[in-house]
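Weekly structure sync, notes
Attendees: PL, DS, HV (note-taker this week)

Item 1: Tripartite tricarboxylate transporter TctA
DS walked through the input record. Source organism listed as Brachybacterium endophyticum. Sequence as pasted into the shared doc:
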Amino acid sequence: MDSVSHLLGGFGEALSLVNLLWVLVGCLLGTAVGVMPGLGSSMAVALLLPVTFALDPTAAFIMFSGIYFGGLFGDSTMAILMNTPGQASAIASTFEGHTMARSGRAPQALATAAIGAFVGGMTASVLVVFLAPWLADFSASFGPAEFFALAVFAFFATSSILADSALKGLLALALGIGISVIGIDGVSGAPRFTAGSPLLFDGISLVTVTVGMLALAEVIYVACRERFDPDRAPMRSSGRPWLSRAELKEAGPAWARGTAIGLPFGVIPAGGSELPTFLAFGLERRLDARRKDPQFGRGAIRGLAAPEAAGNSTTGMAMGALLALGLPVSATAAIMLAAFQQYGLQPGPLLFDRSPDLVWTLLASFFLAMVVLLIINLPFAQLWAKLLLIPKPYLYAGITVFCGLGIYATSPSVSDLLILLVIGLIGFMMRLADYPLAPLIIGMVLGPLAESSVREAIQSADGSPLALFEGPIVWLIYALLLAAIVFTVATRLLDARSRRRQSSRTEG
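Item 1 (cont.): predicted structure, written out as tokens:
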């Protein structure tokens, strides 16, 4: 009951006219920055951090909450409409979301994303209010061995589940892990896979790989397709900015499952919401394969609903972990931690005692940001979908420019633009050869986590690799991985057998 009374007091402060204005401004700015390729919610918070120094801490962090959640929706908007996610957390939304947009259901896809973000974010906000003590115990139970097991699970799950060919999925995964280790080794200081070029000593950033693989490769692919298939029908929009009862019934279970998958990752330092969004997408794809009429690959609404809910539930819990534990589990949370320190505040359990008004007003603003985003984005779904009506030469030329500007803003170096071009060409060739991009991205995201976890676990055990297999959580993760592999192999064998029977009947 103390939490409820404190939260009501926070609402009393957050619902003032001035603070409501800051929530609205933050949501609009976050969405505006999020729709630019390469500039996601983390970049929005980083760019706008100096602007808020003139505000009092409460107003500044209320604005930050709007920027944070608004940036996530902006990332998803461009992922759905242009196949160009603002950052890695929106990658999983491109697979079915962009297919929905190409088939004329862009407003419905944006509505699905907005409602999924609302469901995931609101659920996480409620749990943050009541479960802060449990968050500390759960997060403390994960060590290097658990993180490595989690990374291995993600590697094999994405390469086998998200790819029609397990071999192609593993090759794409290996390429992603290979890209992630390029640069100077943080422990030994030795250069790795740099070919002696100083341009690669700092490695290749995830933003560059994401923008190059998904955005620039898409531009090159579309340009070639238009060159050799000029009569291809353009994308259209049906203009219905809401979901029908059948679509709500279809998306509802996926929102619930995605939210459940994303919640635990908000307190596990596993790199943010990339992993849960991929896991949620993979689960929905496996469930869809068991249906009589599989929809994945044709714009399955469940394939968009689950990642959106998972990503926002992870984000909401990550903010709670930052406030209650002082634990930044994502890049954006780390930037928020720096913002707290700029105001002389240290997130953690003592923050609730020393600055209760700030904490509970900020928690209340999470709820308000969810509502504001739903209100301003559902009606504007049809307006965002109008981007598809822009002539393709101008549209994709603009996307290319924003890709370059986004990369140059994160690292003002011409060499990064050259790397972006090379990555884009590799992504284009992978797309021509029908290689999946998701395993490559997940390898890039979790490769450093897996490497650092292996080193820490082995060093703590005096060089014994058995440390990677100790602990009940580790065994549980590997058991789930084994079950997933067995299930996938059995399902594909049954599918192959049924196809052979069907072909024999057709020939007979």
